[in-house]
Amino acid sequence: MKSVSISDSSPSAQVWNSALQLDNVPVINTQTLVPAGARAVVIAPHPGDEVVTCGGLLQLLSALGHPLQLISITDGSASHPGSQQWSEKRLSVFRPQESVEALRRLGLPMHSLKWIRGGFTDNALAERELQLTQFIARYLRPGDVVFTTWCEDGNVDHEAVARASAKAAASVGAAFNEMPVWAWHWPLRDSGLIPWHRARKVRLDTWSVARKSHATHAYASQLDGEPAIGIAPLLPPVLLEWMRLPYEIVFV
To answer: Which InterPro entries does the entry link to (predicted)?
Structure first.
């Protein structure tokens, strides 16, 4: 799947608010998705992906007392190449702090949340897919339920992490689920490429949506671009609007 720029597409033409299939996606309850007693493992390619993909689901699972493990593959320090304001050195410190604040805003139990940081380099994950698979497998166990980005999401890092996570989950006997991010911002003409037969809706209440939105705004470095050097916001308004919907989509 070719890489997609969210800022290049007209919001009115994007899949998330134009595809009729979204109305017909069946609902799945949290207990069916993650059986009682199972550990949920969320694998985020970059800091913030854990909130964007499943900030609502994380709240639901936490409320039900599921053990949670978060694996952050990169530190996100290469999100602003050429920037003086957001240099790699500054971002390597700042972005993990943003993630801590975001998870706190979600209301997750920080004292018991297991959080692994991979330290891989942004925009180079496809070149290290084997090492990535081995790294992820090290932290999985049979019976886990894994969530990560989709293998055809339109972002090379998202896709590499999905492929590696799928292989790692299969190798240890863990369940595997994907959650699209960039794909919802494809032009409507591409909606036929989405595997609608695998899609399920996780319903969110008003408070869960509000906390998720509040958590997203903890990523200050991603909310403003730098037009002078050609950097658009990594979290543009259209993506923030998508995250205010009362559900999240999982490909099971």
So the answer is: GlcNAc_PI_deacetylase-related, LmbE-like_dom_sf
Contact 251, 150 (CB under 8 A): yes
132: containing domain: 6-251
Supply 101's token pair: 């604040």
Instruction: Give the confidence band of 130 by pLDDT, cuts at 50, 70, 90.
Output: very high
Per DSSP, the residues of 55-111 read HHHHHHHHHTT--EEEEEEE--TTSSTT-STT-HHHHHHHHHHHHHHHHHHHT--TT
Predicted pLDDT of residue 13:
65
Exposed / middle / buried, residue 213 (Cβ in 10 Å: 0-12, 13-18, 19+): middle
Structure tokens at 241: 């609007």
Percentage of residues of the chain with pLDDT beyond 90 = 62
Residue 1 belongs to some domain of the structure: no
Q: What is the CATH number of the domain that holds 126?
A: 3.40.50.10320
Q: Model-level pTM greater than 0.70?
A: yes
- The total number of structural domains in the chain stands at 1
Residue 128 lies in a domain: yes
Higher pLDDT, 112 or 141: 141
Residue that has been written with the tokens 């980005």 in this structure: 149
Query: Band of the pLDDT at 232, cuts 50, 70, 90?
Result: confident
Q: Is residue 92 part of a domain?
A: yes
Q: Are 193 and 21 in contact (CB under 8 A)?
A: no
